């Protein structure tokens, strides 16, 4: 083999990611309680193809075979999430040990094969019992999350080193409580702001719980981050871009790095009537917790965002450059945005370490007559993004790992099963799995620690 063009530092972590609700299925097995996604998917019209995660990839039963596929690809690491209502069916109180047993077995099997588990504690499947008590807009949910984190760390912390507290708090707060296209499907701006605060607080409290139980644990959060560009030099577009960046990026990055919430965003939210009690959001005790030291920053990168002033003067609009390549999600393919983002994060916030905890693309390619899945576009996508990641490393960014979203095709939330992000193709009727060409390509990347 020739030397790879983009070589990665020794020890670079090559992984792939999934989340519980998107792959596991078995929504009531072994004493699991309902989550807000079990409820939300039952509301007519919420999911494009009318589906749910009831079966998904049936990973709860096929996990062992799925680990074999990870071995075939040669993964160093597997990022998965624990389903909170499997562990605590009511969100708090009685522990369901059978639910924990599942993750216990999975972790053991991964370690047998030298695959490092990266455990996400919250990937959006809040126990319905907690939503019935108000969900993330209520402070007690943050405390409940920390108690749940402690329970999981007590069981797995002797073997799991890497923990991701919350996945994409912006999505959980904004899409769940304001835009309503994700569970629990609310449309309430005040709730959304409170939810974001309690997700961050929950993250901080969970860090303390994990470190308490498992001092050698390495802990971080995974944020959806996007470089934001104004559509033009028009002051309205520039201001819309500032707002968008504030809402999605800085609202999370600033408090996590000890700066509190950005004052311009607080002012916007206040003037829009989305904040009821500003002093509550600015409590220095809460901010001390939120800014608790982490070991890495998880970056989920999919695209940049071009923003222009809203035609209705309410919320900024997202534009796509007319000549851009887009994936089947309608997301722009923009690899250099990953370099820009990583360099910016390293300069501005100086995290100890960065991991790309998600990056990937939706293309529907399925098996050809030869039974193989020739997903050339995914290979091109991943290749260009790895080149961008390597560019960031060359510029001095402490990037130590990269996880493809996703290990396998799965339930893509409100988009159902029509969007396929996997390295592994799944026939959702038969549950047959086929490694796509991209999986074999990724295997070669991992083998030489670089891109040819
Ligand atoms: C991210 C989510 C992940 C998946 C990808 C496509 O926002 O974290 O679960 O849906 O997008």
Structure keywords:
single chain; 452 residues; alpha/beta; TIM Barrel; eight-stranded parallel beta barrel; binds beta-D-fucopyranose
Mean pLDDT: 97
Biggest pleated sheet: 8 strands, parallel, barrel
Oligomer: single chain
**Any idea what the CATH architecture is?**
Alpha-Beta Barrel
How far apart lie the N and C ends? 9 Å
Instruction: State the domain count.
Output: 1
Write a structural description.
The protein is an alpha/beta fold and about 450 residues long. It has helices spanning about 20-25, 35-40, 60-75, 85, 95-110, 130, 140-155, 170-180, 190-215, 235-255, 265-270, 280, 285-290, 335-350, 375-395, 435-450; strands spanning about 5, 15, 75-80, 115-120, 160-165, 220-225, 230, 295-300, 305-310, 315-320, 355-360, 400-405, 425, 435, 450. The protein has a single domain, classed as TIM Barrel (Alpha-Beta Barrel). Strand 13 (about 425) and strand 14 form a beta hairpin. It is globular and about 60 Å long. Bound molecules: beta-D-fucopyranose. Beta-D-fucopyranose binds near residues 358, 405 and 413.
